[in-house]
Write a structure and sequence with these properties.
The structure holds 3 protein chains of 3 kinds. Chain A contains 2 helices and 9 strands, in the order ββαββββαβββ. By secondary structure, chain A is α/β, with parallel strands linked by helices. Chain A folds into 2 domains: 101 residues, NADH:ubiquinone oxidoreductase Nqo5 subunit (Beta Polymerase, domain 2); 40 residues, no CATH class. In chain A, the strands form 3 sheets. A 5-stranded mixed beta sheet of chain A has the order 1-2-5-4-3. In chain A, strands 6-7 form a two-stranded parallel sheet. Chain A starts with 5 loop residues before the first strand and ends in a 7-residue tail after the last strand. By secondary structure, chain B is of the alpha+beta class. In chain B, 48% of the residues lie in helices and 14% in strands. In chain B, strand 8 and strand 9 form a beta hairpin. In chain B, helix 4 packs antiparallel against helix 5, helix 4 runs antiparallel to helix 15 and helix 6 packs antiparallel against helix 11. Chain B is globular. Chain C is α/β, with parallel strands linked by helices. Chain C is built from 5 helices and 4 strands. Chain C has a 4-stranded parallel beta sheet with strand order 1-2-3-4. In chain C, helix 1 runs antiparallel to helix 5 and helix 2 packs across helix 5. The two termini of chain C are 23 Å apart. Chains A and B meet through strand 3 and helix 2 of A and helix 8, strand 6, strand 8 and strand 9 of B.
Chain lengths: 151, 368, 152
């Protein structure tokens, strides 16, 4: 049994458990063995002093739901070895929130152009600083703050 | 032996990508060796913008996620917000919501069917489907005042009541929709070319479906009979009778059959809702419009709903102010689309359009 | 040459012909693309106005309808597609997003208006515009082509 740090519920009664970030991979492996076979999504939340990563699990057999949370500053283990679908969700969390996933096979930006500066869903992301994207000769995206470079 | 694998770019502008999908396809002759989707060409910052305004303001961005089924998206958001605020919703409003959501599911599936036909090289189903869809849109126009994006569901109810004229229109529509659907189905399902191009193509096994988190009709076509409306009912889905169609083949043809059957079930739900629609308020007076922007709440909420594409929900976190702290959209198309590499590998390049369009991706929702 | 009656009227006839045989480019970006499909579909049938089937290649078409939000990642691709179209070429910017950013104008990855990327002839307002509005824009564009007031 992997120790649970704290336990709450959401307003509509879905169980939320907190697990330390070292234990996240063994804990999710254990839960997958218990029948939570679907990973609905992975999310990051920026709480200014720390980041939180959320895993939404679903057991299609007995229709149970579970939200697993872990606090981190930068890095957490990747769960792509457990669910193939975790690949895109982790890339998105890296792209928008800036959580690094250890041992992820292809941790690149997914929604924004490669080379984008900053992670927009962080609370301190500067919304007034505009970035521009252009195509370089090899067909890849090129990002810069310079307007004359853009489009 | 020299390396014969060539790389082909499919999209972002292509008539059968249903938007702005780009797939990097590696081909060995005609066979797809590897397919890597590239997304993000319609990333419109819905999550960030929803975190910058008051709770009701987020609705306009949620509306534009899955723009062919905007009411289904709105439902996910209002349910999450109401759950967070413990808002009471009048019974009539809930039934109206069910009615509208099911009608919008029909409209969404019709648009899928029409464009799926286009991708398979058939122009006729497109016109038949759009004829039927326009009838539904006229009903929406009568009730909500707009055709595509409605902003109709409000916190605590709906913005306007269903008029007697609209009820007449819906009755007229339910009377002959099923026969019209039969006609459309026979256009595709009785075509030898269509069936032979879709049967056994783009297969996903039940294990793949679970591993990728695929939900909705795609999941049900692969043999996993799960529908949020049945498994964890919201609104009054436990008070109406309907079946969940499912198949075990997991190919494009199975998805076609599942969606057609779902449209029949939705039509029957619409019929039942019309019979059961109670009289009363359609709006909770406590949440009148000037009050809405001042609503404050705290806590967390995740209310799953069944959108035409799969499980849709919003993970909403409130921090006690009138602005949501975090709005995370669980978008079904995003998860469905991530299964592309498995789905395309080993098939021919000509099967690519059939497989991609059978997923019914809508890019407002994939890229958000 | 320009005051030669025969040449000017031939020019006018050519312009009239161009306006009445526009070939739009299948280029759906977002929500507005669905209304564009409706305009092409059964009820509205905009082939009535001399703008027939949507072409799938930029090289076959002379009218680009930018229907939807232009993101920063997509903008250079739009420019490239526009460059690939053959002259004469026209652009309709459909909806609030393509015209000025629309509801997403405050976002970090949205271009506020496709006119920063390609020259636009006609703007259509609405979010999304109804198919009637798009058909009106088409008529306006045809009138402008006949008058010779287009940008390209």
């Amino acid at each position: 049994m992997i120790p649970i740090e704290a336990e709450t519920t959401t307003k509509n009664g879905i169980k939320v458990v907190y697990v330390s970030k070292e234990n996240i991979l063994p804990f999710l492996t254990e839960k997958k063995g218990e029948g939570f076979d679907t990973l609905l999504m992975i999310t990051g939340v920026d709480y200014k002093d720390h980041l939180e990563v959320l895993y939404h699990l679903l057991s299609s057999g007995n229709n149970a739901r579970l939200i697993v949370k872990t606090k981190t500053n930068e890095e957490v283990d990747s769960v792509t070895s457990l669910w193939k679908g975790a690949d895109w969700h982790e890339r998105e969390t890296w792209d928008l929130v800036g959580v690094k996933f250890k041992n992820h096979p292809n941790l690149k930006r997914i929604l924004l152009a490669e080379g984008w500066i900053g992670h927009p869903l962080r609370k301190d992301y500067p919304m007034d600083k505009k970035q521009f994207v252009n195509l370089s000769d090899d067909g890849e995206d090129r990002v810069s703050y310079d307007k004359t470079e853009g489009y | 032996m020299e390396d014969k694998v060539i790389e082909v770019n499919f999209g972002p502008q292509h008539p059968s990508t249903h938007g702005v999908l780009r797939i990097k396809v590696k081909l060995d002759g005609e066979i797809i060796v590897d397919a890597q989707p590239v997304i993000g060409y319609l990333h419109r910052n819905a999550e960030k913008l929803a975190e910058m305004g008051a709770y009701p303001k987020g609705m306009i961005y949620i509306d534009r996620l899955d723009y062919v089924a905007a009411l289904n998206m709105e439902l996910g958001y209002v349910l999450a917000v109401e759950n967070l605020m413990d808002a009471q919703v009048p019974e009539r409003a809930q039934w109206i919501r069910m009615l509208m959501v099911e009608l919008n599911r029909e409209a969404s599936h019709l648009i899928w069917l029409g464009t799926h036909g286009l991708d398979m090289g058939m122009l006729t189903p497109f016109f038949y489907c759009f004829r039927e869809r326009e009838r539904i849109l006229r009903i929406f126009d009568e009730i909500t005042g707009s055709r595509l994006l409605y902003n109709y569901f409000a916190i605590g109810g709906v913005y306007s009541d269903v008029t007697p004229k609209a009820i007449e229109m819906i009755k007229e529509w339910t009377d002959d929709f099923v026969t019209k659907l039969e006609e459309i189905q026979s256009l595709l399902g009785k075509s030898y070319i269509y069936v032979s191009r879709t049967r056994g193509v783009g297969k996903l096994t039940a294990d793949d479906v679970l591993s990728y988190g695929v939900t909705g009709p795609m999941q049900r076509a692969s043999g996993i009979k799960r529908d949020v409306r049945k498994n964890s009912p919201y609104l009054f889905y436990d008070k109406v009778n309907f079946d969940i169609p499912s198949r075990t083949e997991g190919d494009v043809y199975a998805r076609f059959l599942v969606r057609i059957e779902e449209m029949r079930q939705s039509a029957s739900i619409v019929k039942q809702v019309l019979e059961k629609l109670p009289q009363g308020e359609f709006y909770n007076k406590k949440y009148s419009k000037p009050m809405l922007v001042r609503l404050k709440t705290t806590g967390e909420s995740y209310v799953p709903t069944e959108s035409p594409k799969g499980e849709f929900a919003i993970h909403l976190i409130g921090d006690g102010s009138s602005i949501p702290y975090r709005v995370r959209i669980r978008s079904p198309s995003f998860a469905n689309l991530s299964s592309i590499p498995t789905m395309l590998k080993g098939y021919k390049i000509a099967d690519l359009t059939a497989s991609v369009s059978s997923m019914d991706p809508v890019f407002g929702e994939v890229d958000r | 040459m320009s005051d030669n009656i025969l040449v000017t009227s031939l020019d006018e006839a050519l312009r009239w012909g161009t306006g009445k045989s526009l070939w739009p480019f299948t280029f759906g970006l977002a929500c507005c693309a669905i209304e564009m499909m409706s305009a092409m579909g059964s009820d509205y049938d905009w082939a009535r106005f001399g703008s027939d089937i949507f072409r799938d290649s930029p090289r076959h078409s002379d009218l680009m309808i930018v229907s939807g939000t232009v993101t920063k990642k997509m903008a250079p691709r739009i420019r490239r597609l526009y460059d690939q179209m053959a002259f004469p070429k026209f652009v309709i910017s459909m909806g609030a997003c393509a015209s000025a950013g629309g509801p997403y104008v405050r976002g970090y990855s949205v271009v506020d208006g496709v006119d920063q990327v390609v020259p636009v002839d006609v703007y259509v307002y609405g979010c999304p515009p109804r198919p009637e509005a798009l058909i009106q824009a088409l008529k306006m564009l045809q009138d402008r082509i006949v008058e010779g007031k287009v940008k390209h």
